Amino acid sequence: MISTARRFRLPRHLRVPFAGRAFLLVTLGIGVAAVNTGNNLLYLALSLNLSLILLSGVLSEGTLRHVTLRVRLASEAFAGEEASLAVTCSAEAKRFPGFSLVAILRAGESPATVRFPDIAPGTTATRVVRFRPSLRGELDSIPASISTRFPFSLFEKSFELAVPAGIIVYPRPSPPATRCEDLPVVAPSGRSFRAGRIGVFPRGVREHLPADPVRDIHWKATARTGRWMVKEREGEATPGIDLRVEEGGTKEAFEARLSEACGTVLELERRAVPFRLRIGDRICAEAHDPERRSKALAALATAQSNPATSTMAGDGQVGKPWTA
């Protein structure tokens, strides 16, 4: 039934604002007066008004035809929090410019409106708009509509489309007051945690990279080879935090655990503490991975509960420190 309705759905929607209704009433009145009186001047005025209506329909159709939208995230998106969305309106396949275009995206708790006053043929325009996603997860497409009142603001013509998005909305981070207070701040040695930090014992030399500090330059090897060489050290054993999210329990409890884990991941990253994230028995992010933050948040965003899995009482998200 839905596919049949979509098949016979009109390609354009027309809405008549107050100015258009007034214009139609005036045109109707002129037509009645012209028929009753036979006045040529009234017939001329009626023809002019009907020509404006016809011209409005042709120009508005030329404005909307072949207009497309693209969206991408301009900032990280968390459920229930404001984020930025970059909306690009394209007229690359058009020969007629786009005027007075208004795009409405229904991506979050309230629709986001973006205005594009004019777009030349073959060009694009990008605007950044704020939106507030309500739920975590992957957002494959965003329902949207594009409308215009060009050229006389007498009629509003629009059409519906689904904009491909590919957006991942992370879980809502738990408030700082509800997070575990025993998160470490510094390593036992007194230095800040940093996964992958170079160790003490050298194991060889290699060519210099722009990020290498000057103190690691191996002067003898540099003088012997004629190129900048630095000491390569063994990886330092780095203590980290083991995060685990159980998949069992009710849906509300599972969402609460994801929210707490999301807040904990952000707090550990802020403190530069390495961590390993496991959801159920699956390892989703390793401490030595430089992209562990994005991998952990993406895993939390797409995690699914498994009610058949039992959840032991007292299981939290923050486990004991371990050595990576």
Q: SS-based structural class?
A: alpha+beta
Q: Helical residue percent?
A: 25-40%
Terminal CA distance reads 57 Å
Q: What quaternary form is this?
A: single chain
* Mean of all residue-level pLDDT scores: 82
Strand order of the largest sheet: 1-8-7-4-5
**Percentage of residues in DSSP E strands:** 25-35%
Q: Tell me the radius of gyration.
A: 31 Å
Write the H/E string, N to C. HEHHEEEEEEEEHEEHEEHE
How are the SSEs ordered, and which strands pair?
Layout: H1 2-7, E1 13-15, H2 18-37, H3 40-64, E2 68-73, E3 83-90, E4 98-105, E5 112-119, E6 124-131, E7 137-148, E8 156-169, E9 198-207, H4 219-225, E10 229-235, E11 239-245, H5 251-270, E12 275-279, E13 282-285, H6 292-302, E14 318-323
Parallel strand pairs: 11-12
Antiparallel strand pairs: 1-8, 2-3, 3-6, 4-5, 4-7, 7-8, 9-10, 11-14, 12-13
Helix pairs in contact: 2-3, 5-6
Task: Walk me through the structure.
Helix 2 packs antiparallel against helix 3 (40-64) and helix 5 packs antiparallel against helix 6 (292-302). The chain is α+β, with helices and mostly antiparallel strands and 324 residues long. The longest helix is centred in the first third of the chain and has 25 residues, at 40-64. Helix content is 27%, strand content 33%. The strands form 4 sheets. It has a 5-stranded antiparallel sheet. A 4-stranded mixed sheet has the order 13-12-11-14, covered by helices on one side. The protein is built from 6 helices and 14 strands. A hairpin with a 7-residue loop joins strand 7 and strand 8 (156-169).
